[in-house]
Amino acid sequence: MTVDVVSSLEPSLPEYELDDTHTLPAYSAQAGSTECLLQFEPARRTGCPACEWIFETKRMKVNLGRKAWKLNSPTYGLNATIDGSIQFPDLTHPLDSLHATIEGRLRMACPERRASMEDGTFVFLRYTVPIEFNPDLPESTFTVPIPSTFKHAGKSIPCPPSFFFTESNYILEVSYQIRFDAVWKTKRRRKVESRLVGFYYLPKTSPVIPPICVLPPASRHRENPPLFLQGPDRMASFPVSPSFQTNRTLTSCQAESLKRLSNSIYLSIPIPRVFTAGQEIPFMVSLSFNDDPCLAEILCENIAIHLYRRVGIAGRGGHSASERNTVVSSAVLRKNSGWAEGVVVIKGSIRAGDAGAECGWSIPNYAYVKYVLRVSIRPPASLLNHVPTFVHEEEFGVCTSSWGVVDRELVSGGGKTTPAVALSGSVRRIY
User: Fold this and answer.
1) How many other C-beta atoms lie within 10 A of the C-beta of residue 253?
2) Confidence of residue 117 (pLDDT cuts 50, 70, 90)
3) Average model confidence (pLDDT) for the chain?
4) The dihedral of CA 253, 256, 258, 261: what is its sign?
5) pLDDT digits (tens, 9 = 90+) for 182-230
């Protein structure tokens, strides 16, 4: 006789009782729009000057809602809308029209250019919308969208963030304001009353492609160093050019030295060159001096690598661009010898400023903010006339947020993002 031991040890399946009075919910593979979006309710206005942005004129009272970001001005992010209300406490005459106009202004002043046309104010954005109102009601609500782009020379350009930089009469400022215009018509004349309100526009940006945070290892099997630094498609190498820091005519020995050392030092960086503020940017510098092995050891002791914020006013009318550089951070270097005689590889990383506090932008033909990685390799002072100095610059793009953050906020926030509040360190106080 055989006994089915396995079947006797198996536990019995549980039993369930179905309640026919309750219908099962319907499920689908794709969530509906209401399941993806956060549902926002407009904040109630209390009329408290300490907790809300209130601006008044003789006949008009503008309320832009609560002070949400603890900054000294109303602040908005990418694709944001300015929501608020306008009250007319003492409306003696019927209101004829009510409009709101958003303006973006660029202010420039450059001491190197006397009475230059570049100095002054350039309005790069102007957007006017009517505000609906009921003549029988003393209050009108409004929603004014902030354009994320502006037209310039037939192209759509992203609106730059609010920005302010000054240094010894050199001024570059990007400011935004909204103007409310109310018009009354009386029997004798037409009355216009306006209220100008400045605000911060601090849009978030993020890289389109995830940046590389760690460089791939360089191959040791190349026959002609430093060509071993040619890595995959996401890494690029550039020669660091030599030069003698002198105003005199180069001697024949110096000219020969420049020609012989033109491909001796390379800088390797990830591509595309777009990173997030606060992120570490990796790089690699290779020194290959097969004929002068000691020169590699001498030069690698005096390497300076910095990331600069370059503020510039574009040159027009025969003028060159006027720029100011500010050091954002310095690199941390790690020496790696032993590749071959006369070959030294230095790896390192440099921080792209503080998290969320840096952002590059450009208004073509007018002004820009760039980020530049500068590599400087200098010989000792006693060898300056015999050994050249190696200097190279590479421009980088810096965004406020990590890859994918802006897209996720646009989905969860109903097409809007919160402001990049960390950029407020580069703005001028308004109120």
Assistant:
1) 10
2) very low
3) 85
4) negative
5) 988 777 778 888 999 999 999 999 999 999 888 776 655 554 455 445 5
Stated pTM of the model: 0.83
Quick one: CA dihedral 387, 388, 393, 394, positive or negative?
negative
Those residues whose C-beta lies under 8 Å from the C-beta of residue 419, and which sit 6 or more positions away, are 69, 75, 76, 77, 80, 200, 202, 203, 204
Strands 361-363 and 303-313: unpaired
- pLDDT bucket at 6, cuts 50 / 70 / 90: very low
| pLDDT 10s digits, 53-85 | 999 988 889 999 999 898 999 999 999 999 999
Contact between residue 80 and residue 416 where contact means Cβ atoms under 8 Å apart: yes
Distance CA 103, CA 105 (A): 6
As a whole number of angstroms, the distance between CA 301 and CA 213 comes to 25
Please state, for a pLDDT cut of 70, what percent of the chain lies above it: 82
Element (H, E) at 199: strand 190-201
Q: What backbone phi and psi angles, to 5 degrees, belong to 186? A: -110, 180
b/e code 33-67 from CB counts within 10 Å (16+ = b): eeeeeeeeeeeebeeeeeebbbbeeebbbbbbbeb
Calpha distance 423→163 (Å, rounded): 8
Residue 383: helix, strand or coil by DSSP?
helix
Residue 7, SS3 per DSSP: helix
Place of tokens 């000294």: 72
Give, as one character, the DSSP assignment of residue 131.
-
Q: Is 297 exposed, middle or buried (0-12, 13-18, 19+ CB in 10 A)?
A: middle
SS3 of residue 188 by DSSP:
coil
Per-residue CA distances from 24 to 16, 19, 21, 389 (Å) = 15, 10, 10, 76
CA angle 67/69/73 to nearest 5° reads 65
As a whole number of Å, the CA-based R_g of the chain is: 31
- What is the DSSP annotation of 9-62? HSPPPP-----TTSPPPP--SS--HHHHSPPP-PPPP---TTTEEEEE-SS-EE
